[in-house]
Amino acid sequence: MSSTTIGNSVSNNINTGTVGIIGAGAIGQAMAKRLVAAGIDVILSNSRAPETLAPVVDALGPRSRAGTRQEAASADIVFVSVNWSRLEEALDGIDWNGRILIDANNPVLLPGYRLAELGGRNSSQVLTDLVPGARVVKGFNTLLASVLASEPQQAGGRRVVFLSGDDREAKSVVAGLADRLDFATIDLGSLEVGGTLQQFPGGPLPAVNLVKLG
Prior knowledge:
By secondary structure, this protein is of the alpha/beta class. It has one domain (13-213): Rossmann fold (3-Layer(aba) Sandwich), CATH 3.40.50. It has helices at residues 26-37, 54-60, 69-73, 87-91, 123-130, 145-149, 168-180, 191-198; strands spanning 4-6, 9-11, 18-22, 41-45, 64-66, 77-80, 100-103, 108-109, 114-115, 135-139, 153-154, 157-165, 184-187, 211-213. The strands form 3 sheets. Strands 3, 4, 5, 6, 7, 10, 11, 12, 13 and 14 form a 10-stranded mixed sheet that branches. A two-stranded antiparallel ribbon has the order 1-2. The radius of gyration is 16 Å and the shape is globular.
């Protein structure tokens, strides 16, 4: 596997030529749009057959293709955004083997946007138990899908995404990926602390749309 430069960081272990996406809803499609615009290939998956995503990947262009969950999870960086009630099913049976998982999920139960029962933890801590072997970084979950999909360079600056994680290298790689997508980042620290700040509902940061100048 070749060395890849992302932003100001270099990883000898992470290949960002392709990013897998599990969950092809509004947030997953928004992230796919930004990745493709940055010249990064995307494997997009949902809970149904890959052929159901044909209109989506056709609109995204030749850098995107539809695949199964397992195919999307085979990328070194995997973005996950699914309905909370289906999260365990979406992640079941995947061998993560040290790959980076970007947790863009929110523990929302519908109808009513109710907070799921998390047993006194935040949603990223709950997710981490479902993905043994993955290096989890919380990010890209606080922006509305329409905002995430739009051009990150705004008003002379760059739109901010918040990141949290317990694996310093994984968080650095995701920060570099965000930089390549033209986002600025703010590191909120650990999953325990930052994951709570980012969580919707409950945290203070969801829907906060900041632009970093300079």
